[in-house]
Amino acid sequence: MTSQAFQDPKSIRHFQSICDACQQLIHTFHTPAELKIYADGYLHALRKERSLSPKDQEKLEKLVETWILDPSSFIGPDGDINNLYFQKQK
């Protein structure tokens, strides 16, 4: 997914960092809304730092939003659909 979206290695590293952090947050039972808040803060900091080109920043923001909203992004390593993050909230 990231190889098609980004040319800059920094963008790929930031995307992976956000994904890794969200995966860890899932394991401590955070909600999708909380993941979105975390990612928004991360992306805002990147925007303020001007760490990425505006084009890469926009791509990263869109990709992260799509990734967070897709429940299949959070299926456990065993591939069991019953381990989706929002089902652990019960």
Describe this structure in words.
- With about 90 residues, the chain is mostly helical.
- The protein has one domain (about 1-85).
- The protein is about 65% helix and about 0% strand.
- The protein has four helices and no strands.
- The protein has helices spanning about 1-5, 10-25, 30-50, 55-70.
- Helix 2 packs parallel to helix 4 and helix 3 (about 30-50) runs antiparallel to helix 4 (about 55-70).
- The mean pLDDT is about 85.
Order of helices and strands: HHHH
**DSSP E strands, number:** 0
Please state roughly what percent of the residues sit in beta strands, choosing from under 5%, 5-15%, 15-25%, 25-35%, 35-45% or over 45%.
Answer: under 5%
Structural class of the helices, strands and pairings? mainly alpha
Major beta-sheet overview: none
Portion of residues in helices?
A: 55-70%
Task: Give the CA-CA distance, first to last residue.
Answer: 31 Å
Pfam families: DUF6761
Summarize the structure.
This protein has helices spanning 2-5, 9-27, 32-49, 54-69. It has 90 residues and is mainly alpha-helical. It has one domain (2-87).
What's the layout of helices and strands?
Blueprint: H1 2-5, H2 9-27, H3 32-49, H4 54-69
Helix pairs in contact: 2-3, 2-4, 3-4
List descriptors:
4 helices; 90 residues; single chain; mainly alpha
